[in-house]
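anyone else get weird line breaks when pasting these?? whatever heres mine. first is seq + tokens for prot A
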Amino acid sequence: QVQLTESGGGLVQPGGSLRLSCGVSGRISHIAAVEWYRQVPGREREFLAARTSGGGTNYASSVMDRFTTYIDNAENTVFLRMNNLIPADTAVYFCNVAVRKTAGRPTTDLWGQGIHVTVSS
């Protein structure tokens, strides 16, 4: 079976950095794409970043040049590197990983349950 394991959240000071990860376990061909979102209580879910295994990227203007997402298909893991964090980045972060279980077949979306990030001194 294919499963998703999230890590990397926690408490960080303003100006600091964190690297979030969503690792895929089980038998797959490769990770085709990843999307990252975050949500603050009382606010709608916010799109942050996306990357395909072919190299295409898309970033929200609010995190452009601070956040970077990438795919490590050698480890079947996706990452979100967050630099220069500010208190407004405090939120629950979600990965949406498009997994191709078999070459030539449609992908399956795996959603993380949420990674808590708190930016505070």
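and prot B, same format (seq, then tokens)
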Amino acid sequence: EVQLQASGGGTVQAGGSLRLSCAASGFTFDDYTIAWFRQAPGRSREAVSCINPLDGTTYHVDSVKGRFTISSDNAKNTVYLQMNSLKPEDTAVYSCAAEPSSVYACYVGFNDYGLHYWGKGTQVTVSS
């Protein structure tokens, strides 16, 4: 059974940092693309970052480029999202999702279409 567990959220002041973790189990980690999404109250879900753990391909949306970094520890089957210089507009529930890389690629413009495996989200709140 594919399972994804997001953790690491919390409340920080603007300019602060958090590191989110997405622990994966039930599938061959290297064979899946893993992505982070976020959803703020009253807004639709938006893509944040994605990674292909097999070859290290990553992508970050423009609003987080230079501030967020996605990485993976393949030995631990875990993907991380290091978030620096946080802004109040980063406040949202952050969720990780996975799909076989053979059918879902990490690329410019990635979205949630075609992602079938989702973990429960973790709340990130950035105060001004």
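btw re prot B: The two ends are 40 Å apart (CA to CA). The longest strand covers residues 92-100.
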